[in-house]
Amino acid sequence: MPTIKAVISDFDGTLFDTRRAICTVIAETFRSFSEAVPATARIEATLVGGLTLEETLGILKPVLATDKEFCTEWVTEYRRIYNAGLGIISSAPFEKVGTMLAALKHMGVAVIVVSNKGAAAVHSTLKHFGFADWVQTVVAAENDFATKPNPRSFEDRIKPLFPALFPENYLVLGDTATDIYYARGIGAQSAWVTFGYGDSDVCQSLNPDYIVQSILSVIDIVAEPCLKTV
């Protein structure tokens, strides 16, 4: 395997357990519009695909999938609620994530967090838990910038920051099929984490380069890539 010099990591379901945060904030968003709150199981089912917030809301309330202006109102309200503090207090990093991030920085490996989550939420959560100094940059949802799995998010927002690296020098770390597709689309190596929200059968069928059962295994992959399952 080519040398890994940068790790592109997903956020929800990979670095942080945000299941409760997402479900809670979606419920509060529905209440703020005086709408019936979807069942928790229905909300959790949307986490499997690594969708954008717009796509998630469109599934839970179909009119939002066709009315872009109305959907924007809901997205704005969701992010207001999330960033007011409810998102952070309902989230927690997965075990040993801080150890992994610190080790990668010590090894000189850049960590780029790429998420379809709002950029403000990602930044504030990383800062709150003391991880911000271990992450070189965040590529998340803001303005009209492309996000994953669109390769433009890599070409426009990541590649210019690391001009000496080739696509195969990147490892995309994530828990859903979206992350594996993203890695394929940009020519990077892929590592699927088994403890996140993705569909296990689907993700394994996509044959990622690595299957990660423990987040600390990422250190081993970067140091000496050899085993498919670690």
If you had to describe this structure to a student in words, what would you say it looks like?
The chain is built from 11 helices and 8 strands. It has 230 residues and is an alpha/beta fold. It has helices at 19-32, 40-45, 53-60, 63-66, 68-89, 97-106, 119-128, 152-157, 177-186, 200-205, 217-223, and strands spanning 6-9, 16-17, 92-93, 110-118, 137-141, 170-174, 189-193, 210-212. α3 (53-60) crosses α5 (68-89) and α5 (68-89) runs parallel beside α7 (119-128). 45% of the residues lie in helices and 15% in strands. β7, α10 and β8 (210-212) form a beta-alpha-beta unit. The protein has a 6-stranded parallel β-sheet with strand order 5-4-1-6-7-8, sandwiched between helices. The protein has a two-stranded antiparallel sheet with strand order 2-3.
